[in-house]
Each structure stands twice: as structure tokens, then as C-alpha cells.
Specification:
heterodimer, A: 2 domains, 5-stranded mixed beta sheet, 3-stranded parallel beta sheet, 33% helix, globular, disordered N terminus, B: mainly alpha, 10 helices
């Protein structure tokens, strides 16, 4: 009985509401390792280069943290979505905001409007596809945990089961090998992969914008005390044109990706 | 005359019963106390509701069930096909390694290098090499399906493990068995087939089934090549809701598959033991 009596006070002492800041005076930002272009540069978030790195520093500045008061932590996807208080103040890693996910974590306002895009390589059977119907018979792939995957199953609903990969690196290889006909990724990643990573890469087309749109948001612990301030910072950056300026600097012009009918 | 226990014997028996009742009571109450403590510590924890909701959410379990079950069927298909080839190739390698003829030296050498290599190489690397490397060669008659190539990679790795298990079984057969069979006029291969291998397999059934259970779980690793197995199906569901319950559903299904297999192993081992003990009585 004595053990039980000791256990209870220890446990109830931890009770507190809302997850606070990880480290006083420092903004702790999480992202995955490796962090890919064009969102980050050279897998080094702290250089501030790449769209998301730049947005993270802009948000930090709005919140009153100078660049040297920002600390980056490596957070794999499963740690981003784990229950309870996280190891970061916010995570920035191309996470799309959905109502379902909002039940498990907090999101800031969206900092980027996403559209999903199909890419392929020259000579693939979908290289000339013009419409969503043209993709029905294709073997498509996407990265696990992405809304790209749900786009395949919900929007295209292809006859062949889609392939699902841990990372876009494996998916790119499968695409280059002809093991899949096409890969679905977000538009900036599509430009990056087809230009930088793939030999003979092509953009087949982007999906028409969904009702309500899809946005990337910063991820915070459910009920975090910081959510309101972080959201306000993102809103301010959108309003004063900073987000657009950062997009111009780091993301290829998204003009030139045909919209799939 | 019927047996009449003495008063002393009755006393002894009563004391034994009291002792056994007492130990049952102690076991019961200590289990209860321990269970209660666990429940209090876990449910009292600050994050209990959150954790319960993220890992044991009935709504998401039901939602994930069809796709996880569909994925499990892929695990089972891969398991059955892979296990067939693993046993076949493992057996051939084991026979090659335990051969003694000088002519067969190169075969022994190749078999030894094979087992050394594939037991040492991480399965993930073999999967990536076979699953992404071979299609990269663009040889038209080689299938490029993730499932087929993933199964090949599993067979390559597990054959090496199983070959070593079977070899241990073969080497565990007493050499006099071989000599006796040869003396009775059986040829080398007849000796192997009728005398050595039956005893060898009997020796190593539990470790072989252990490898089978292990293969059952590793069959899911082919998901790195894009195939959707039970765990990957759960991962997809988890990514949509940020809720981990689908993984638990997959885990429960795997355990359900493993339990009958383990009980079967136990039963088989007991049967063999009984048979071996019975031998002296003939």
C-alpha cells in the first residue's frame, strides 16, 4: 500500500494544462532529417535558405526571437504526430492542414497554398496525359503520410493500387526504374524533383484546386499555449507580403504546370 | 484391506493443503496489488487520456480494419511463397555445406560464402539492392513488381539463416547413424534422405518455426519498395488522422497469427519428446 501512496502524488504533480515553451528565451523549431529542397537547402535548416527555413526565421522574428535565438531539432514524422507535448515549439515540414489531423495536433494558419502534382519521366505511358481520366490506368506512387497519397485514392481512384514509399528518394528511384508510371507530390517539390533529381523528369500536370484549398501549416502540440501567437505571426507575414516574397526567392515560378482536367 | 491413512498422514495432508491455499492467496493478492498499482499509475498519469486516445481509439480501429486486413493478406501471401523457397534453398545449401566429397569443394565454398554474406547483410539493404537495383538494369524479362522482388530479397536473406539451422540439425545427427545406414547398404543419397534428414529436421523444428514467425513479421519490410502491407496500411491511416491506433490493429492481427504457430511448435516438440522417450520401450 505504501507504494501506491507514493505513486499518486508523483503522478498528480505533473498535471498541468497546455504545453508550454520548450526552452525559455529560445524558439525550438522542428523539421525532418533529411530536409529536402526547395523547402530547405543542403539539409541545413539553420542557414535560413529554402522556403520553409526562411518562413521559420520570419515567424521567429515576428515572435521576437532573433536568428541566434532559434534552435532547430530533428523530428521524424512519427514524433511530429505523437501524443502529448512535443519536443519542439513548432514543426515546419510540409504538413497539410486537415480537420481530421486537427483532432490530434494544433496547426497555425496556413503558410503555403499547396496543389498536388503528377510527375513522370520521358517515355512513361502517362507522359502525355491531359486529364485525370488519363491517369486511371496508371501505377502511381506517393510518399507515406502525405496528402499526395489521398489525392491518388480520392481524386484519381486508379485501377491499380498505388505504391507507397517511405521517402520521395525511394519513390524517385522507382519512377526512374519504371516500377511506377507517375509520382504525386506537391507542386514546388514537383518542380524541384523534375529539374534537379530526375533525368528526363516531366510535370504531367497539377490537380485543380480543391474546394477550401489545401495549405501547409506549422504543427504544434495539441492545446499549445503558443498556437495563437504563432498563427498571428503567420497571418501577419501573409498580410504584409513577406510570404509571397519568400516564395519568389525560393520556389520556382509555378506558372507552367498545366492543370489536369 | 483398504488403505487407512494414519492420523499423522492426515495431519500432513491438511498442512500441505493449508500451505497451498496460503500460497494461492498470496499469489492472488500480490497479482491484484500489482495490477491495481499499474492501473493507478497509468490511468493517473497526466497524459493518460491523450495516450489512450492516440493508441486505443475504437473509432480509428474500425476505420483502419479493412485496409489493414487487406494488407495482412499481402503479408500472408508473401510469407507462404517465401517460406516455401526458403526451406527449399536452405535445405540445398545445408546439404552442400555438409557434403564431404572433395569434388564438391567449389560447391561448399560457394555455399559458405553465400551464408556468410547474406546472414551478415542487413535485410533492408538486400531489399533495396534487389528491389530498386535490379529494375534499374532495365532487363525486360525480369519482373519489376515490388512484391515479387521484395519476396526474392526475403528468400535470399532467410535462406542463409535457415540453411545454418538445417546444417546444425544435420550435424547433430550422430555419425554412427550414417555409418550404420551405409553398412546396411544404403547409398549416400539414400542415407541422407531416409536416415539423416528426418532426424535433422526433428532436431531443429522449433528454431525453424522461430524463423518462420520472424519471416512473417519481416515480410512487411517489402513495404519500403512501395507495396502496401498491414503495417504500411496502418501507417497510411495514421498519417491521415495523426492517430496511432491503426498500428495497434496491425499488431493485434500479427499476434493473432503468431499464437497458433507458437502453440503448434509447442505441440510438435512435445509429440517428438514423447516419441523419443517411447523408443526404449519397444
Amino acid at each position: 500500500m505504501a507504494i501506491v501512496a507514493i505513486a499518486i502524488p508523483v503522478v498528480s504533480a505533473q498535471k498541468s494544462s497546455g504545453c508550454g515553451q520548450i526552452k525559455e528565451g529560445v524558439l525550438t523549431i522542428g523539421t525532418d532529417d533529411p530536409a529536402y529542397g526547395p523547402w530547405f537547402d543542403n539539409n541545413t535548416p539553420s542557414n535560413g535558405k529554402g522556403y520553409e527555413a526562411a518562413v521559420a526565421y520570419a515567424v521567429a522574428e515576428k515572435l521576437g526571437y532573433a536568428a541566434d535565438k532559434v534552435e532547430w531539432v530533428k523530428v521524424p514524422f512519427n514524433k511530429v504526430i505523437q501524443p502529448g507535448c512535443k519536443d519542439f515549439d513548432f514543426d515546419i515540414n510540409q504538413v497539410s492542414i486537415t480537420d481530421e489531423r486537427k483532432k490530434a495536433v494544433d496547426f497555425s494558419s496556413g503558410y503555403y497554398d499547396v496543389s498536388q502534382t503528377v510527375i513522370t519521366v520521358k517515355g512513361s505511358k502517362i507522359a502525355g496525359a491531359k486529364s485525370i481520366a488519363d491517369l486511371k490506368g496508371a501505377k502511381l506512387g506517393a510518399q507515406v503520410g502525405t496528402t499526395s497519397y489521398s489525392t491518388i485514392t480520392d481524386v484519381i481512384a486508379p485501377t491499380q493500387a498505388p505504391a507507397v514509399f517511405d521517402t520521395n528518394d525511394v519513390a524517385k528511384q522507382a519512377l526512374a526504374n519504371g516500377q511506377i508510371d507517375g509520382l504525386v507530390v506537391d507542386l514546388p517539390t514537383a518542380f524541384y524533383i523534375t529539374a534537379v533529381d530526375l533525368k528526363d523528369g516531366l510535370i504531367v500536370g497539377q490537380f485543380p484546386a480543391k474546394a477550401g484549398g489545401e495549405q501547409f501549416g506549422l504543427v504544434l502540440s495539441k492545446g499549445s499555449k503558443l498556437t495563437k501567437d504563432v498563427s498571428a505571426a503567420v497571418d501577419a507575414l501573409r498580410a504584409d507580403g513577406t510570404l509571397a516574397k519568400i516564395a519568389d526567392a525560393w520556389l520556382a515560378s509555378t506558372v507552367g504546370a498545366p492543370v489536369l482536367k | 484391506m483398504t488403505y487407512q491413512p494414519s492420523a499423522l498422514q492426515l495431519q500432513r495432508e491438511a498442512a500441505k493443503r493449508r500451505a497451498s491455499r496460503r500460497s494461492t492467496l498470496i499469489a492472488l493478492s500480490s497479482t491484484l496489488a500489482f495490477g491495481l498499482l499499474l492501473v493507478i499509475v497509468i490511468t493517473g498519469a497526466q497524459g493518460y487520456e491523450t495516450v489512450k486516445n492516440s493508441f486505443f481509439n475504437w473509432h480509428y480501429a474500425k476505420l483502419a480494419m479493412p485496409s489493414v486486413f487487406h494488407g495482412l493478406l499481402l503479408n500472408l501471401r508473401v510469407l507462404i511463397i517465401a517460406e516455401f523457397f526458403v526451406l527449399l534453398i536452405g535445405l540445398l545449401i545445408a546439404i552442400a555445406r555438409t557434403s564431404t566429397s572433395p569434388v564438391l569443394y567449389p560447391v561448399r565454398l560457394v555455399a559458405t560464402i553465400y551464408t556468410d554474406l547474406f546472414r551478415g547483410l542487413p535485410l533492408l539493404l538486400v531489399l533495396l539492392l534487389v528491389g530498386l537495383g535490379i529494375p534499374g538494369l532495365r532487363i525486360s524479362w525480369i519482373p519489376n513488381s515490388a512484391v515479387v522482388l521484395g519476396t526474392v530479397a526475403l528468400v535470399l536473406t532467410y535462406s542463409a539463416y535457415v540453411a545454418e539451422v538445417i546444417r546444425a540439425g544435420i550435424e547433430g545427427v550422430n555419425p554412427t547413424q550414417r555409418q550404420a545406414a551405409r553398412a546396411l547398404g544404403l547409398t549416400q543419397s539414400q542415407t541422407l534422405e531416409h536416415v539423416v534428414l528426418p532426424q535433422a529436421f526433428r532436431n531443429v523444428t522449433p528454431p525453424l518455426l522461430n524463423d518462420l514467425v520472424s519471416l512473417q513479421k519481416d515480410s512487411g519490410l517489402i513495404s519500403v519498395l512501395g507495396a502496401v502491407d498491414a503495417i504500411r496500411a496502418a501507417g497510411i491511416q495514421t498519417a491521415q488522422s495523426f492517430n496511432f491506433t491503426p498500428y495497434l490493429v496491425a499488431g493485434a492481427l500479427f499476434v493473432l497469427l503468431t499464437i497458433p504457430l507458437t502453440r503448434f511448435t509447442d505441440w510438435l516438440t512435445r509429440k517428438q519428446d514423447a516419441r523419443q522417450r517411447a523408443q526404449g520401450q519397444w
